[in-house]
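Exercise 7 asks you to align residues with tokens for two separate proteins.
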Amino acid sequence: MVSRSKFIFHLLPLYLTLFMPIFLITGPFLSDLSLSVCGLIFLINSFRGNLKKYYNNYFVKFFIIFNLIILISSLVSDYELFSLKSSFFYFRFALFALSVWYLIDSNKNFLIYFFFTLSCSFFVLVADGFIQYFFNKNIIGLKLITLNLYKINQI
């Protein structure tokens, strides 16, 4: 039986990261949500487990400087709120990268599992592409919507 703490702080980020290729197929919501959850859990794990080695490298220092430049650029732009909306939470990508690094270090089979899910996702996308090309339907049976650009340009 897996304890609740082990599931939340170890298995949940593992599963969310492994299913990231599938989440990317479904759209931006699930992938952004799992990316943010993994980053937050890594942040909590790093404070609980004293994981300072992940923060003491050139990547993190470069990303902090880069993030500060983006924020300053957003503050001095003509459209501050619009620009800040897309750049303020950019640090989540660095936290996700550190979370993946932690998962690779803590789970020796992580890369094998990730390769398997990535390969399966890629296979499904390629199969769906062939089905759409030859049968004008996607893998779940929805018909393709095609635009006749020649007729649109003639109007």
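Second protein for Exercise 7:
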Amino acid sequence: MHTVSRFQRLVAVAAIAGLLLLLLAVPVRGTAAWIRVLQDAAHGPIFAAITIALSFLLAPTAARRESAAFWTRHRDLLAFAGAQAIGLAVELTQDTIGRPASVFDLGSNAAGATLGLAMIHLYRRRPGPASRRAHGAGAWVLGAAAAAGLVYLAWRPVVAASAYLQRAREVPVLASFRAPRDLYFVHTRGVASGIVDLPAQWARQDGERALRVRYDAAHGPAVQLTEPWEDWRGYEVLVADLTNAGARDLRLVLRVLDARHDWSPGDRLNLPIVVPALRRARVRVSLDAVRSAPQRRPMDLSRIADVTLYAAPAAEGDLYVSRIWLE
């Protein structure tokens, strides 16, 4: 029967404390999607390690061998439950220090803990028919749960990687709207938004798709590209294919800023644009105008960080964005 010493218990406690410190105290800089995704994904391996450490911590000591049978039967379940309690405490703590609690993170904690139990099982398993009989049904259940947990943990990183690859493939197109995946780097504001067929009176081909943003007198429309392809060097013009389905002219502002911006109005491009009522129009903006827009410096066209079209609240209508690209 495997037992642990007090020193080994102290090592397990220190490991758990270090992992929690890594999760709570290490600052994460940047707001890029891949940074957020990796931060969320880190919960999986961290809680796998915490579960392994808890299981090790709950092993009987040499001085209490009489309780070994009890701990052998129940310590993995207790380790899993302990990991979930720690995970819940972490989320509640994060919420008090300005990092919102997340149900997804709780799921990542559980998935990681399941992977940790699977690794413990593999470590303990000995070759031979007796071991296979002892671990048979439980091993299959644990294996299936661990596989599901791995899929859960990998899903967001895979989706993020796919979005970044698609963004790179489509350059010089910065945004097009054919399917929900095209909205990964797009934020909208208004009454409602979604990718739809462009109404026939403005469509240039059957089934042409566009992003529709509905707006009214209380909710102005906005379309923001949060991580556009950043290197605009070698291009001359920014083009946006827009349709104003409202009964009044739509007065938009095109905002472009680079990674050095200080969020002051004078440190970016703020270009007024008018899209006539019931019209489809291509808005073309010289990149020379973009470069010279900041008051105290040239904009860095190799590090564009944000492109936004927005308008103040107005009468009801629909703004359709078909494409935004560079020429």
